[in-house]
């Protein structure tokens, strides 16, 4: 394999071998702690404009297949692994991970120091980075570092509209139809409407910039705001749409980016986490029951909210319902006087864990109770 460089914004450089496509890639450098589900990670739209490092040391063992992608293409800006599998071995595999990266033009690097990289990011925080291989690796490290520092930051980035569907589409209910759900695609994963369809929901997936009037014109039984990439402070169009939904009293459920949009619609602020939560092993406590779920996360921003009891919003009282047991981060919100709630994580959780899948049942119960 040809040599490659990973250059971080603070000047740290990791040397390794080219993996996937050769060339150059720029993005926010983050890490994912999942030991499984690399194909779902790669195709999650929430990773737009991010270079993802996998902390699991061996990646690509099971190849790739046509059933597990969470969107129509690989979404990450770049990919960092320690040791790529030399052979893909799984009965479902239709190709190798390295070939998929090359075919879709995703620049990657294999480095021996993924643990050192992770520790560095945990100490210094997520930052801009670049991967350079082939002819792009020439010109000297100082010149490459300057190019990294000129690349766009994640703060202030409006990316939801870039990854969203451009046209509405419908995921039909599996079995008897019970509810009509309007799902705003801020970077939705394909498993999410499927989980609702399994519960009898006909899901109308709508573009990120849809208006409240467009949503309400469907006369949905409930409204869902999905996960997605970027800075929630830059997605004012989504906040405005959600406020219209809340004004109409429609049952609402939001996850991940949708949780942040919900927070902003309630008048709360959002902030950038030091290195974010990305992986499938985050412990979250439901403060209403005391139950702890191990959950799947992919977010670099969080909601600022009073954690010591109910607080007032333009839509009545609200409270923090879930907290992260690692760092105390707000992981869920709900209105006490209207049918609306959200969580910061991914209850559809492909490829797991499935501790939080019952949240879709809770959404259905809320719609049934509001009928």
Question: What portion of residues is helical?
Answer: 10-25%
What would you call the structural class?
Answer: alpha/beta
* Spatial shape: globular
Number of strands: 20
Provide the residue-averaged pLDDT.
95
SSE string, helices as H and strands as E: EEEHEEEEHEHEHHEEHEHEHEHEEEEEEH
Question: How far is the first residue's CA from the last residue's CA?
Answer: 60 Å
Number of helices: 10
Uncertain residue ranges: none
Please report which band the strand proportion falls in: under 5%, 5-15%, 15-25%, 25-35%, 35-45% or over 45%. 25-35%
Radius of gyration: 20 Å
Q: How does the major sheet shape up?
A: 11 strands, mixed
Give a brief description.
The protein is an alpha/beta fold.
Produce the secondary structure layout.
Layout: E1 3-8, E2 13-20, E3 24-32, H1 38-42, E4 50-54, E5 58-59, E6 78-81, E7 83-84, H2 97-103, E8 107-110, H3 114-124, E9 127-133, H4 141-150, H5 160-163, E10 169-171, E11 179-184, H6 191-197, E12 201-206, H7 212-217, E13 222-225, H8 236-247, E14 252-255, H9 257-265, E15 269-286, E16 292-304, E17 311-313, E18 316-324, E19 330-335, E20 340-343, H10 358-370
Helix pairs in contact: 8-9
Structural features, described:
The structure is a single chain. With 371 residues, the protein is α/β, with parallel strands linked by helices. It has ten helices and 20 strands. Helix 8 crosses helix 9 (257-265). The longest helix has 13 residues, at 358-370.
List the defining traits of the structure above.
371 residues; alpha/beta; 11-stranded mixed β-sheet; 7-stranded mixed β-barrel; 10 helices; 20 strands; globular
């Amino acid at each position: 394999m040809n040599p490659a460089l990973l250059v971080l914004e603070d000047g740290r450089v990791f040397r390794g071998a080219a993996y996937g496509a050769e060339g150059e890639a720029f993005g926010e450098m983050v890490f994912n702690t999942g030991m499984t589900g690399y194909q779902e990670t790669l195709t999650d739209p929430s990773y737009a404009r991010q270079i993802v490092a996998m902390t699991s040391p061996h990646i690509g063992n099971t190849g790739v297949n046509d059933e597990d992608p969470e969107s129509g293409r690989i979404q990450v800006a770049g990919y960092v692994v320690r040791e790529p599998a030399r052979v893909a071995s799984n009965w479902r595999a239709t190709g190798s991970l390295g070939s998929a990266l090359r075919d879709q033009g995703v620049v990657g690097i294999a480095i021996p120091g993924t643990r050192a990289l992770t520790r560095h990011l945990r100490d210094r925080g997520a930052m801009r980075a670049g991967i350079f291989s082939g002819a792009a690796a020439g010109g000297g490290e100082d010149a490459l570092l300057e190019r990294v520092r000129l690349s766009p930051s994640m703060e202030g980035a409006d990316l939801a509209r870039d990854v969203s569907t451009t046209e509405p589409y419908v995921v039909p209910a599996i079995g008897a139809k019970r509810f009509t759900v309007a799902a705003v695609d801020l970077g939705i994963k394909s498993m999410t409407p499927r989980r609702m369809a399994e519960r009898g929901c006909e899901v109308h997936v709508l573009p990120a910039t849809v208006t409240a009037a467009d949503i309400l014109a469907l006369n949905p039984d409930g409204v869902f705001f999905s996960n997605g990439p970027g800075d929630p402070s830059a997605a004012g169009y989504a906040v405005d749409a959600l406020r219209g939904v809340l004004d109409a009293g429609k049952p609402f459920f939001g996850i991940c980016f949708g949780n942040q949009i919900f927070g902003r619609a309630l008048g709360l602020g959002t902030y950038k986490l030091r290195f974010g939560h990305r992986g499938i092993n985050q412990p979250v406590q439901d403060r209403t029951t005391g139950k702890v779920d191990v959950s799947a996360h992919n977010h670099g921003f969080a909601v600022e909210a009073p954690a010591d009891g109910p607080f007032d919003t333009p839509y009545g009282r609200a409270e923090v319902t879930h907290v992260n047991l690692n760092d105390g981060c707000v992981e869920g919100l709900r209105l006490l006087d209207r049918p609306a709630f959200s969580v910061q994580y991914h209850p559809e959780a492909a490829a797991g864990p499935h501790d939080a899948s019952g949240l879709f049942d809770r959404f259905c119960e809320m719609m049934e109770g509001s009928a």
